[in-house]
Amino acid sequence: MKISHISLLFAATFIAGCKSTTVIDAHRNAETSLSSGDSVVVLGRRHSSEHETEKDFISCVGKSLAGGDKPIHVIPEDQFVNSMYPYFEVSTAPMDVKNLDELVKKPEIARKFSEFNIRYFIWIDGFTEKTGSSGAISCSISPAGGGCFGFATWDDEANYEASVWDFQHLNLAGRISAETKGTSYIPAIIIPIPLLARVQANACTNMASQIKSFLH
């Protein structure tokens, strides 16, 4: 058996184990509904000094809500924040729905909200982090050739919570949390072959699906 075939066989051994699991929890405070023309805004919480909700995760949730079955009209985060400057910057963004009531008393804010036809604000707080790793891979080059050998693995965990603010009734409609855990591998026999658990992507897909069900 050639070395390249051994490498592929070694990789295939771990593909079945390269998975992630997601736990979704939803808590509803009020009934929700969407009418034709209603829009939602998906925003990331970035006020913590310890972590910031990743922009790519917010973008992923927004695109997932806007696609598939029962698509929702989503206003992109950057477009919304820039148009509302400086009221939704990190240091000035409302921390609860009561502050939103105060903001809308400003004529320029009320006008923008009306133009966007916003029904729900979805604030997402959380992050993905590496929780453990083991193994090592070394690579070398010689006159006879080169390659990498070894095996490395690491665990990732994604924890996110979405707070759904109903702009029409100015209340907290509910919260949706997603916790995803997974293990990734990189076996290397000549060529490193990453086998990724895609923890953040799975958290995004599952959270967006739950938000859709929640709003509809």
Separation of the first and last Cα atoms: 55 Å
The residue-averaged pLDDT reads 87
Radius of gyration: 22 Å
Per DSSP, the total helix count is 6
- Helical fraction: 25-40%
Strand count? 6
Shape: elongated
Task: Pick out its properties.
single chain; alpha/beta; 6-stranded mixed β-sheet; 6 strands; 216 residues; 6 helices
Short description, anyone?
With 216 residues, this protein is of the alpha/beta class.
What does this molecule look like?
31% of the residues lie in helices and 40% in strands. The chain is built from 6 helices and 6 strands; from the N terminus they run H-E-E-H-E-H-H-H-E-E-E-H. It has helices at residues 3-15, 55-66, 77-83, 97-103, 107-116, 199-215; strands spanning 20-28, 39-44, 73-75, 118-142, 145-166, 171-192. It has a 6-stranded mixed β-sheet with strand order 1-6-5-4-2-3. Helix 2 (55-66) crosses helix 6 (199-215).
